[in-house]
């Protein structure tokens, strides 16, 4: 059975989608079969790997209108597939509000695909609402991208409290897969201080690899390509390659 990893941070603009795409791409390049699941109605992950937001999307899969494999689309990277999202997904939160077992719709929809893929990576919206709750319920582990700024320290505490609640009531097998830093600027004292504080508190939970600020990483999604296809020699690409290796090693 494949390992299911959810990328979560309730703060937007921290590199969550970029990280899910590029970690997934490098795991695929390592010979593993990987499925990216866009679970954000903005559909940024879909655009970032050049897949269509036309039906079928994750919405049709959740609604039972298609079976799992019918929703899967190919990306430019070998071994890397994706299920796209569109604005239709924004209505799911309302539709699920009064449904019994509303936290488990994504888990149930993805269950048949776990036998096909080595890794399923879920990109959640920047919130702690019903969609993110579904992502946490479906996952084996959660990865937390963290920007090196003061408010990120406050946000990560709230996020980990939410994860603990999910572990107690919804998904007791959910593990903290790790925290990693994004958009790191070594020239600023604040970035260095945030890294030291988080590492001293969370210790081995924090990944060794730090993702630096890199223009090429920002450019790649507009071309519908992971960084390994857009500029594999840039510092951002080398950093995500190392981070993907760490993710694989941690199992």
Q: Which short descriptors sum up this protein?
A:
single chain, 251 residues, alpha/beta, Rossmann fold, 7-stranded mixed β-sheet, 7 strands, P-loop_NTPase
How would you sum up this structure in a few lines?
The chain is α/β, with parallel strands linked by helices and 251 residues long. The chain contains eleven helices and seven strands. It comes from Treponema bryantii.
Strand content: 5-15%
Q: CATH superfamily assignment?
A: P-loop containing nucleotide triphosphate hydrolases
What would CATH call the architecture? 3-Layer(aba) Sandwich
Average pLDDT, rounded to a whole number, is 94
Distance between the termini: 13 Å
* Molecular shape: globular
The total number of structural domains is 1
Placed side by side, the strands forming the largest sheet appear as 3-4-2-5-1-6-7
Low-pLDDT residue intervals, each spanning 5 or more residues? none
The count of DSSP E runs of length 2 or more, i.e. the number of strands, is 7
The helix-strand sequence is EHEHHEEHHEHEHEHHHH
> Which sheet architecture does the biggest sheet show?
7 strands, mixed
* CATH topology (level 3) name: Rossmann fold
InterPro entries: AAA_dom (IPR025669), DNA_Partitioning_ATPase (IPR050678), P-loop_NTPase (IPR027417)
Pfam family, one: AAA_31
Protein name: Chromosome segregation ATPase
Can you describe what's shown?
InterPro entries: AAA_dom, DNA_Partitioning_ATPase, P-loop_NTPase. Residues 3-176 form the AAA domain. It holds the Pfam family AAA_31. There is one protein chain. By secondary structure, the protein is of the alpha/beta class. The protein has one domain (3-250): P-loop containing nucleotide triphosphate hydrolases (Rossmann fold). The protein is 41% helix and 14% strand. The protein is built from eleven helices and seven strands. A hairpin with a 5-residue loop joins strand 3 and strand 4 (80-83). The chain is globular and about 50 Å long.
């Amino acid at each position: 059975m494949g390992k299911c990893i959810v990328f979560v941070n309730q703060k937007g603009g921290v590199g969550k989608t970029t990280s899910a795409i590029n970690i997934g791409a490098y795991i695929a390049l390592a010979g593993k079969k990987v499925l990216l699941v866009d679970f954000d109605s903005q559909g940024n992950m879909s655009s970032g790997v050049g897949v269509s937001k036309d039906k079928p999307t994750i919405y049709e899969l959740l609604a039972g209108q298609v079976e799992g494999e019918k929703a899967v689309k190919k990306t430019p990277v070998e071994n890397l597939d994706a299920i796209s999202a569109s604005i239709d997904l924004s209505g799911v939160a309302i539709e699920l509000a009064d449904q019994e077992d509303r936290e488990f719709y994504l888990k149930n929809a993805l269950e048949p695909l776990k036998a096909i893929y080595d890794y399923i990576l879920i990109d959640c919206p920047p919130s702690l609402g019903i969609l993110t709750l579904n992502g946490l319920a479906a996952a084996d582990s959660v990865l937390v991208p963290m920007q090196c700024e003061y408010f990120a320290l406050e946000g990560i505490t709230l996020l980990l409290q939410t994860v603990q609640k999910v572990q107690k009531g919804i998904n007791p097998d959910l593990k903290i897969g790790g925290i990693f830093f994004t958009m790191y600027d070594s020239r600023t004292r604040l970035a260095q201080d945030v890294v030291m504080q988080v590492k001293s508190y969370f210790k081995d939970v924090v990944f060794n690899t730090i993702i630096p600020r890199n223009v090429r990483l920002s450019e790649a999604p507009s071309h519908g390509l992971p960084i390994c296809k857009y500029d594999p020699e840039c510092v951002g690409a080398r950093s995500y390659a190392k981070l993907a290796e760490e993710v694989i090693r941690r199992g």
